[in-house]
Amino acid sequence: MVDTQKTQPLDLIGDIHAQQRRKLFRRVALIVALFVALLLVAVALKLLADRRDRDRCLDDARDGFTLGTSADLSAVGQGLDLCLEEHEGDALLLGARALTRAQLLAEFGEGSEAAHAAVDAVTGDPDAATHDGELAQVIVDLDDGNLSAARDRLTTIEAMDDSHSIAPNHEVWVGGMLAIADPEADLDAAIDELAATVEDDPSISIRRLLATLYMHAGDGSAALEELGRAREQSRAHLGLAADEALYNALLRQKLPGVADVADQLLEGDAFELATRDRAHATLARGVVRIQDGEIEIGMKAVDDAWGALPGWDKLSRTLALEMAMEAGDGERARRWIDEAGLRAPESDIYEAWVKLVEGDVMGALEDLAKLPQEHPQVALLQGLALVEQNRWAEAQPWLERADKLLPGRIDVEVARARVEAQVGDPEAAQRKLEALAEEEPFAPRAWTGLGEANLAVAWTKPGDEDGQRVRRDEPDATALKEARRAFKWAVQRERMPAEAYLQLAEITERKRADDPQLVTEVVDLLAKAVAANPKLPRYAERHALYLAEIGRQVEASEKLEALLDRPGVGYQVPLSLATIALRRFEEREVSTLDEDLDRWIELAEERHAPKRDLDLVRGRALLAREKPDEALALFQGILATDETDIDARVFQIRALMDKRDRDAALVAVRAGIGALPRNETGRIFLEWAQIMSRGGKRRVAGSHAKTGWSRLSEETGVPIPILLWAADEAIYHLGRDAKPKPAASIGREITALAPTHSDAWVLRANAELRTNRGSDAKASAEKAVELDPNNPRAHDILGQLYLRFGRKADAKASFEKALELGEGTPRESDYKKNLSGL
To answer: In the prediction, which pLDDT does 270 show?
Structure first.
């Protein structure tokens, strides 16, 4: 066998080269491995450096976010923009930026486009979702009003990792905001959660929101305390100063301080105030201006603020709505109710409130009766509306409840003091209202309330030991003067001073006995009361009834008919309409009874008119319809209860005369004179004169008529229609008795007692004509026409006087006017006779 190893030649050179190649390969592999290792180390170091830089960005963002001012959040956003230039697409940084800009939008109203763009940048990749990015989406949904979407998304965030969040507890803030925005949310639970969180979390946003939640819950003291802690934590946070001004404005307290803070925040460019903080400061300043009576400029500030208030900011929007109410701007308030998107019952409550501030008290009460009676604002509005109707006892419990549920409201304080003046201690109410009027001179109804309290003091005094007050025979002059002064201030300072005008009219009316010319001022004041509040019928009712009282019967009837079917109008309106219709028929102003007479009487009965008043007016209607027996039974029924009833006595006598029972009528006359005080028997003597005149005893009739007029004219409080009737009767009987001078004297007296009534001057002109004082009579007749151009009697007597002075053309024109105005009346034939006599 041949040994091949021995036979093959050795290739030493190839071996050497192979060994060298292997060494080279190992060296290259080692170098490559070392390069790769170095590269991997470099990459790892770069990633570590990038992460550290990213984490530093997040730490800086967390620190700035915790400080919580708009400037801090803006700086955080800018810093995150720079970080994203280095770390493009980093999910955590994108989420942090989105959260920062969403917070800047929701809390401060800044950067809506930037916030939405930042949120859009993180919502494209579901796999890259972060705690902060998702929370940012919730905040934007909340600010956009998408509460359902915000609520659903928030529940998914609770399970997400928040270890890299710049605001790890911020879902608590979002939950608190949802509790404010969502009427179905549990406000107390949100407060408890924020209160627990704020102990360990230095975030100003969370502490600020906690104060806001306390305000929403109606705990103003807790809100201001929490706000004070926040301000101690961050003195540079201007939004907290704006909040303090807003909360005190909401509570209607420390208003001079509110104005001072708001002015400092709003002055020029001294501070860079965020949009919503500026809106809060502007709104607070507007509140103070409105409370100070600067309604126009105050409402401009409120209107400016409204546009910057988000839909969830119910506190501010509610305050703005209330300012529109106090300013009486119902149209603006209704628009804001719609824009605010309020739900029932809040929207219904504010609709009722609008009606109340516009003066529609009855409509407001009707709406409030349908709303939840346990609601604090329903109690408030019920109380205020009942006070406006002078339903003091009914208002009291509602106001007490409102004071407990909504403490510190100036309108409730004023209303409670007004009630106290009427059903409690007027002196205490007077002191309270004096202080309120001094401190808050433009507070709703403060001056009216002070006037009412002074009136109560003027007319009442402490009574017996049981503490009950008794009415004075005459008011205390000093208190009455103070009442008048307060009502005059009310007219100047209150937005709707209808009650003040009414009370000034009543005070002025008291002085009419001394100065009858004041009747014009009283009518003017009552008309102003109606103009100030045309929606509450009691002002128009008093105006119409007063016109009837002073003898302006046609005008009164028109106004009373317009009131007849309005809610809350009592029996006096239909009863007065019936009385005027009967008086005009009795005094020959109309030929037939009004066809609505019976309907008016029935309405008065339905509205619970006193039986005596109903029997009296029914008896007069029976007399007018020539049914004296039935009428007499009603009058005698009244006298059986009260023999001093002068109206029943007068119509008893007339009924007996209609029955042609002269003897019984004279018995009734003597019974009346015996039952009544001497100074109240004037009308009885005038009826006696009529009886004597029918019996042909002119001299006796004239004597009784003169006595009757003398006594009646000395009485106080006699309605002008009765005075006019009495003067007419007295002048007629004295004229028949050929006593023109006493008749002329009565003519002068009736114009002194009723200087603004056309018929008074007609009577005077007639009396003066019979004394051959033509010039005086003509002047009186011209005055009669001037006072009432639609009085046919005035034109008729003026025509007679023109004829006396030879002015036939003028006389003809006057007689034609008298005939035109008197067509269809019992005196039409007289006017025709005078015209044809030309």
So the answer is: 61
